[in-house]
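Worked Example 4.2. Consider the chain below.
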Amino acid sequence: MVVNRGIVVIDLWPLPIILHIPIFLLIVIPLLVGIILGGTGSWLSGGRYRRNIKKKVYEIETTSLENKRLKNKIEQLECFDERNASKSTSLNHISSVADRKDF
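Applying the procedure from the previous section yields the following structure tokens:
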């Protein structure tokens, strides 16, 4: 079994820093940093698309509410129209009876 736990000396030359770390950390730490930086960059670049989606959702919701409001208004006007049509037919009947000269 191979275990990469040997110590590696990293000399950050012009800086007076010398690190003594295990080999697996030399591989895992840059990998994790890359994942975090890549995810952050991806999330930041997607901000424009998320903003556009939020605007579209708002537009859809307001359009849906307006659509419901207009449907209710159409139903009210149709009911009003039906009531007026029934009144006008009864008024036409009354006027036709009054117009006869049979008296």
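The chain has a mean pLDDT of 85. The beta strands are 7-12, 17-22. Compare this with Example 4.1 before moving on.
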